[in-house]
Structures are given as C-alpha cells and as structure tokens.
Design goal:
This protein is mainly α. The protein contains 3 helices and no strands. 86% of the residues lie in helices and 0% in strands.
C-alpha cells in the first residue's frame, strides 16, 4: 500500500481535492467548518506531494542516461579494438 501511495500520491491528492467541492455541493446543509479543515489538510498534502515529486525528479536526474552508458561501452570496445595487434 505504501508503494502505491508513493507512486500515485499526486493522483490520490487530485481525487481528494476534486471530491471536496463535490461533497460541498451535494450536501449544502453541512456546516463549513469541516470543509475548512479538509481544505487545510489538502493544502498540506499538496505540499508533501510536491516535495515527493521533486525528490523523485532529483533522483532521476542523478542517474546516468542509458545513452551515456551505451556511449561509454562503445568507447571501451573501441579501446579494446585498438589495443589488439
């Protein structure tokens, strides 16, 4: 479950953010205080989701690209070919 939330946290946040106005419009006799609390929670959750996405992006940028790895392997092969008599 934690892996699912880690991979799809922003989507879950979007569903929750979209559900709040829907619930407010369907049940207009509910007081506004719970919606204020939910809005505050959603703002905090959005910040956490944004930081998680930023961390995943930073981790992905640190990895070498597959093209760079292929270029390095090709350079190694070229060196081996030139060393052989």
């Amino acid at each position: 479950m934690n892996e699912f939330i880690r991979n799809h946290g922003v989507r879950l946040y979007a569903v929750l953010a979209a559900a709040v106005p829907l619930v407010a419009s369907l049940w207009s006799n509910i007081s506004w205080e719970p919606f204020l609390a939910v809005a505050a929670v959603l703002l905090g959750t959005g910040e956490v989701a944004q930081r998680a996405e930023n961390r995943k992006t930073a981790e992905a940028l640190e990895l070498p690209s597959s093209w760079e790895a292929a270029r390095m392997r090709q350079a190694d092969l070229t060196d081996l070919e030139h060393r052989q008599p």
